[in-house]
Design goal:
341 residues; seven-stranded parallel beta sheet; two-stranded antiparallel sheet; 47% helix; 11% strand; binds coproporphyrinogen III
């Protein structure tokens, strides 16, 4: 039997109810693990993403520790931008920093489509991971056009996305050219992962929640739809995730997602009503719940599982990435609690 028939994660993504609720954590690899910090000690973030052996090892570290129902490929949403020639670095404690932010049409020239040759280490790492992971599916991922555009236009992380929205409202033609190019890069990066054997993809539109539904539909949805529809015939689940997206859950499903990721602000049963029929959900424990007393944490985990039962399929996760201060032992305990539910 293929993985699609046996993996609880793939079955829930397909709208089925496997005999246990599957669970994995966004940002499960990384700073919470001492073995990650040791491996990364002398290697810059993006350099580690370009080393297939390191990518393989870092992706496997949380799988060994937590026994989740899926692995997520270790990389970063800005890696494909760097791979086509954008000058971008990840600064510890800050995030992605872009040397020449996008301000005018000429700044788009560097944004050419991504070719498999641009990221040979990605195909190599996905190939070895699929062999090593066996029955645990591998999730490939990319950043969505809006979230990438925000980093490119602001030059780094941003609270209000003011320059991004200013460009979106004042130069719609330039905006759509930019997002179209980013959609090509994103789809190209996902294509490399899927062709090398990734079992699912997740599109991270982390900052889309800054938009009203109207603006999302007009300025962003066509581009995210183009990315997701490029994988409509691959027979793999497409997960679409953003933070603070209560007002966008329906739209984020409609652009071509099989699974909608929900942050902790909207309970999953309410999210299911907003998303509409036929799509599974992923989420949505508050990442800060790991700091709660164990009885409070256990009650919250059970509440998420109960509400998730309102959807055709439910994949347990946090509502956003694992917080760096989390105790790995508590993460392992959450996997057990979900599996016992
Ligand atoms: O385990 C996993 O989830 C896989 C790896 C992964 C990373 N980044 C590794 C990483 C994934 C899926 C991402 C996606 C990503 N990167 C997103 C979307 C998800 C989200 O959190 O909303 C975003 C917005 C980024 C951009 C980014 N990269 C930020 C904001 C940061 C944090 C900067 C900091 O130091 O606080 C990064 C760096 C980054 N990406 C780290 C890791 C493990 C930390 C780098 C380190 O270990 O020093």
């Amino acid at each position: 039997m293929g993985l699609a028939a046996t993996s609880p994660f793939l079955r829930a993504a397909a709208g089925d109810r496997p005999d246990r609720v599957p669970v994995w954590f966004m940002r499960q690899a990384g700073r919470v693990l001492p073995e990650y910090r040791a491996l990364r000690a002398t290697t810059a973030m993006l350099d580690s993403c370009r080393n297939a052996d390191m990518v393989t090892e870092i992706t496997l570290q949380p799988v060994r520790r937590f026994r989740p129902d899926a692995a997520i490929f270790f990389s970063d949403i800005v890696l494909p931008l760097a791979a086509v020639g954008v000058e971008v670095d990840i600064v510890a404690g800050v995030g992605p920093v872009v040397a020449h932010p996008v301000r005018a049409r000429a700044d788009l020239d560097v944004l050419r489509p991504l070719q498999p040759d641009d990221v040979p280490y990605v195909s190599t790492a996905v190939g070895s991971l699929v062999r090593e992971l066996g029955a645990t599916p591998l999730i490939g991922f990319a950043g969505a056009p809006f979230t990438l555009a925000s980093y490119l236009i602001e030059g780094g992380p941003s609270r209000n996305h003011t320059r991004t929205k200013a460009l979106m409202y004042s130069e719609p033609e330039l905006w759509h050219d930019l997002l179209g190019r980013l959609a090509d890069i994103t789809a190209g990066f996902l294509r490399v992962q899927v062709d090398a054997g990734a079992d699912a993809v997740q599109l991270f539109d982390s900052w889309a929640g800054a938009l009203s539904e109207d603006d999302y539909l007009r300025y962003v949805a066509p581009h995210s739809r183009r990315v997701l529809s490029a994988f409509a015939d691959d027979g793999i689940p497409r997960i679409h995730f953003g933070v603070n997206t209560g007002q966008l859950l329906g739209a984020m499903g409609e652009v071509g997602a099989d699974v909608v990721g929900v942050d902790w602000r909207v309970p999953l049963d309410e999210a299911v009503t907003r998303i509409g029929p036929g799509r599974s959900v992923q989420g949505n424990l508050d990442p800060a719940a790991v700091f709660a007393p164990s009885d409070v944490l256990a009650a919250k985990v059970r509440d998420v599982c109960r509400r998730g039962a309102a959807a055709p399929g439910h994949i347990f996760n946090f509502g956003h990435g694992v917080l760096p201060e989390s105790d790995p032992g508590v993460l392992a305990h959450i996997v057990d609690l979900v599996h016992q539910f």
